[in-house]
Amino acid sequence: MDAAASPDTSGIRIEPIAAVHIDSFHRTLDVVAREKKYLSMLEASPLPQTREFVMGMIAKGNPQFVATAGDEVVGWCDISRHFFPSHAHRGNLGMGILPAYRGKGLGRRLIETTLRAAQKSGFARVELNVYEDNARAIALYEKTGFAREGIVRRAARIDGRFIDAISMAFLFDERGFS
């Protein structure tokens, strides 16, 4: 997309997700999922399941933020706390941004906001897996303090092709995050 057709990101707000965002979040999730390059899901779950997920995240106090342009969600970042009590200090990060809004610093804003909220909520560690061919995301995660921990071989199979993933983590006590 050329600069003239690229949307202005100066008015984009980063805010906690709320019920009012669910329909737009669902549409954005579906667009990113259908690219078949970034997410484990290949299309968004049905809207009622997405609504249940979001409302569950809110009820549990898990950090979930959206980037909004006007009333439309153009990106998100969330951290789901692990279920087992012995792992409750850990969370898994998920995020996505609509194609027209990528490469403009929005991902960094979303991650940093979500990590601050995770730290306030008592997380000690945030984990993620990123497909090894997603160089832009890997660079973003490294810039925000995530460290590579290993390779998950054949982590995904999309359209008959296996894709390895890089396992990464952010440890608050090692990163001096504030």
UniProtKB/TrEMBL annotation:
Protein name: GNAT family N-acetyltransferase
Record-linked InterPro entries: Acyl_CoA_acyltransferase, Bact_Acetyltransf, GNAT_dom
Residues in N-acetyltransferase domain copies: 12-173
Keyword annotations: Acyltransferase, Transferase
Organism: Rhizobium croatiense
